[in-house]
Design a protein that fits this description.
With about 100 residues, the protein is α+β, with helices and mostly antiparallel strands. The chain contains four helices and four strands, in the order H-E-H-E-H-E-H-E. The chain has helices spanning about 5-15, 25-30, 55-65, 80-90; strands spanning about 20-25, 40-45, 70-75, 90-95. It is globular and about 35 Å long. The protein starts with a helix and ends with a strand.
């Protein structure tokens, strides 16, 4: 699955949950994914949107079902400083 296909499937789901910005990172962003690779997505909620672990779990579940792959959804604040630099450098914007 390429970035455009991921974008086509993921963006409507992300927008439904008030995600203002989203970017792909990890192996799919680099283009070196394997059959068992998960899809890593960095999100930023729109101002005023309710955030909770339950909502993030729903987003992950919907994306997983739609993309037929394991999905990891993170916010920039949840990234470690060590990992954040790599994520921000390699990210591919979805929204």
């Amino acid at each position: 699955m390429n970035i455009e296909k991921i974008k086509e499937i993921a963006v409507p789901i992300l927008r439904q949950y008030g995600i203002e910005k989203a970017a792909l990172f990890g192996s799919y962003a680099r283009g070196d994914q394997k059959d068992d690779s998960d899809i890593d997505i960095l999100i930023e909620y729109a101002p005023g949107v309710r955030k909770s672990l339950l909502i993030r779990a729903r987003i992950i579940n919907e994306l997983k079902n739609a993309l037929q792959k394991d999905v990891d959804v993170v916010t920039e604040n949840s990234l470690s400083q060590f990992f954040k630099e790599d994520v921000l450098r390699e990210k591919k914007v979805l929204i």
